[in-house]
Design goal:
The chain has about 80 residues and is α+β, with helices and mostly antiparallel strands. About 35% of the residues lie in helices and about 25% in strands. The longest helix has 9 residues.
């Protein structure tokens, strides 16, 4: 769930702030605004828009869920 999103056009950055759906911890990720726009409009896959982010950080951007919480909710068998 996105709580607060902020763009800074002079720095061409976008801050996405989410609350983890499982543990309710707040987290923010700062990304390039152009890459964010291309991802959100479907022009790029998230891994192509943000190759510098870890897969875990990209999951937070997609679902708002930390990897530890994801693993707790969906343990591998």
């Amino acid at each position: 769930m996105a709580l607060f999103n902020f763009s800074n056009e002079s720095r061409n950055t976008y801050v996405q702030t989410n609350m983890c759906r499982h543990c309710k911890e707040i987290n923010s990720i700062i990304v390039d605004m152009d890459a964010f726009t291309q991802w959100r409009t479907g022009k790029l896959f998230i891994q192509d828009a943000f190759p510098h982010l870890s897969a875990d950080d990209r999951e937070v951007m997609i679902s708002g869920t930390h990897i530890a919480c994801w693993n707790e909710m969906f343990p591998e068998e």
